Amino acid sequence: MATYETILTEVRGRVAIITLNRPEKLNALSAQMSDELRQAVLAFDADDEVGAIVLTGAGRGFCSGADVTGWGRALEREADPGRRMEQAAAQATETWTDLWARVKPTVVAMNGDAIGAGLTITLGCDYRIAAEHARISMRFAAMGVMPELESTRLLPHIIGLSRALDVMLTGELIPAPRAAELGIVNECVPADRLLERAIEKASQYARIHPQTTRAVKQLVWANVFESDTEAVKRRERLAFAEAQRRPSHREAVRAFLEKREPDFYRAIREAEAAASDGGSQA
Question: What pTM does this model have?
Answer without folding.
Answer: 0.91
